[in-house]
Amino acid sequence: MPDTQKPPGSPPTVSVDAGSYRVVRPESANDVIDLLRKHSIQIVDLKFTDLPGLWQHFSITLPEVHEGLFEAGIGFDGSSIRGFQEIHESDMLLRPDPTTAFVDPVLSTPTLSLICDVVDPVLQQPYSRDPRYVAKKAELYLKQTGIATTCYFGPELEFFIFDSIRFGQDQHSGYYYVESAEGDWNTGRDEGAYGGGNLGYKARYKEGYFPVPPQDTLQEIRSEIALTLQQAGVQIEVHHHEVATAGQNEIDMRFATLTRMADNVMIYKYICKNVARRHGKVATFMPKPLFADNASGMHCHQSLWDEERNLFYDASGWALTSDLCRWYIGGLLQHAPALMAFCAPTTNSYKRLVPGYEAPVNLAMSQRNRSAAARIPMYSDSPNARRVEFRCPDPSANAYLAFAAMLMAGLDGIENKIDPGAPLDRNIYDLPPEEAAKVRKVPGSLEAALQALEADNAFLRKGGVFSEDLIQTWIDYKRTREVDAIRLRPHPWEFYLYFDI
Questions:
Q1: What is the pTM of this model?
Q2: Rounded distance between C-alpha atoms, residue 192 and residue 399, angstroms
Q3: Inter-axis angle of helices 336-343 and 323-334, to 10 degrees?
Q4: Catalytic residues
Q5: Residues that bind L-glutamate, according to the entry (predicted)?
């Protein structure tokens, strides 16, 4: 995430041609209704997030949009949503948040999108398993502690854009097949459809960082994604090709408050996928879709503020950080095994978090050093720029739950003054074996992370931010639908290793 000198309280600015304008977000139902008229909207789309972290939606026509919609909500079947209700308690409500309204830039029909909160109609209260509600509770708990008024998050989501993807598994077969014109494996492909011969310029494995076109074939698509995101009110700072071959990318958003940034992550994924599809390609946030090359992470920059003062800055502290910042890091590192259940929440995540490679598996803090789990970026000595970058999460995470969990771990570190240990300002990958053995590591599997969450979740339940029901539902869902489902199926490589045994 690039450094910035702009005060964090300033509203986002979107560049348009030679000028700029401020994104004016609606504040009330009446503001939303004015937007409908101003943009000649024909459809209103109501979006919300299921427990694993995928957007769901349905659309309504204009006669259904009135002030009462924002107060009473609109019904839907919660039993059909992953991680939500059973069939005998399926009636649920969506209550649109007027401050999230944006004109949907990927649809040809004039459509206004609204992000919604989920409500239990019987209790007339926010639904405890609604991920967005958890994020909002975390921000409220932060204020109640008196430690800070605001938490800012700036995630760096990496993702791949492929030309095509095929996969399948049944009782007697299983495969996946990724195709990309940028893939290093295609140096010998006949590309006659493009005018004869092979166009070359394939990014070599682990050499995809920052090449210019024609090697970077996705420059125009990333620019289109960035500008489309800005149309939706998400400010973009930078975009570039990432390290891996076959079309790995990164587009960085300007930091925002916790729930707002989680909203922006959902918009980001939605627009990346739809713009890629517009070009006949497919975007994926799966952490490790390719063997033998870099995976996709979601490094999360975070800081605590008291109004306009960055509480992580201390001119006389190590790496210009305050005691409060280092205790926050101590909480992240102490609770990292449990955090991974939300921050790296797929079995595929642990194909990325493997010791001995470039993944941030070492639970240590450092300045500048990307081999540590918690890093202090040192691009600038500005007080506004002081933050911690937690590098373990990946983009398969449900951003609402992951951001809330990281904040709760950091606050627990501050409340208990947890010592993060001495800084490791060396390449941890090159430590002698006896020293490396002393550095704690993240869990090696999703099952291990879920076990850690079972054993260590009291910090999440403070202030009722994460309910016991949500934590147990998450663990049960992940075990039955993902861990066990993967464990039961033969892997193609097992045939190579064992068929002749």
A1: 0.94
A2: 43
A3: 70
A4: 77, 156, 158, 242, 250, 299, 370, 389, 391
A5: 294-295, 352, 358, 370, 391
CA pair distance 120, 98, nearest whole angstrom? 19
Residue 370 is assigned to a ligand binding site: yes
Question: Which of helix, strand or coil describes residue 133?
Answer: helix
Q: Are the C-beta atoms of 275 and 251 separated by less than 8 Å?
A: no
**Angle ∠(275,399,110) on CA atoms, nearest 5:** 35
Q: Fill in the amino acid letter for 480.
A: T
d(CA 45, CA 98): 12
Rounded average pLDDT over 27-54: 96
Structural tokens at position 63: 């006669």
Region of 360 please: left (phi>0), alpha (psi -120 to 50) or beta: beta
Residue 322 is labelled as binding a ligand: no
- Domains in the chain, please, with CATH? 25-127 (3.10.20.70), 150-498 (3.30.590.10)
Per-residue tokens: 90: 């399926």
Helix (H) / strand (E) containing 125: strand 125-126
491 is in an annotated binding site: no
Q: Which two tokens stand for residue 192?
A: 């006659």
Say which amino acid occupies 25. R
The reported pLDDT for the residue numbered 196 is 61
Cα separation, 412 vs 389, whole angstroms: 17
| Cis preceding linkage at 214, omega within 30 | yes
Residue 28 annotated as lining a ligand binding site: no
Q: How far apart are CA 180 and CA 290, in angstroms?
A: 11
State the maximum Cα–Cα separation within the chain, in Å, rounded to a whole number: 71
What DSSP designation does 128 have? T
pLDDT digits (tens, 9 = 90+) for 165-178: 999 999 999 999 99
Q: How many CB atoms lie within 10 A of CB 177?
A: 9
Rounded to whole angstroms, how far apart are CA atoms 74 and 60?
Answer: 10
309 is in an annotated binding site: no
pLDDT at 22 over 70: no
Q: What is the pLDDT of residues 270-317, one digit of tens each?
A: 999 999 999 999 999 999 999 999 999 999 999 999 999 999 999 999
Cα–Cα distances (Å) from 188 to 168, 182, 197, 204, 289, in that order, read: 27, 12, 9, 13, 22
Q: Could you give the CA distance from residue 95 to residue 74 in angstroms, rounded to a whole number?
A: 7
Q: What is the per-residue pLDDT across 366-406, written as a single tens digit (0 to 9) for each?
A: 987 777 899 999 888 899 999 999 999 999 999 999 999 99
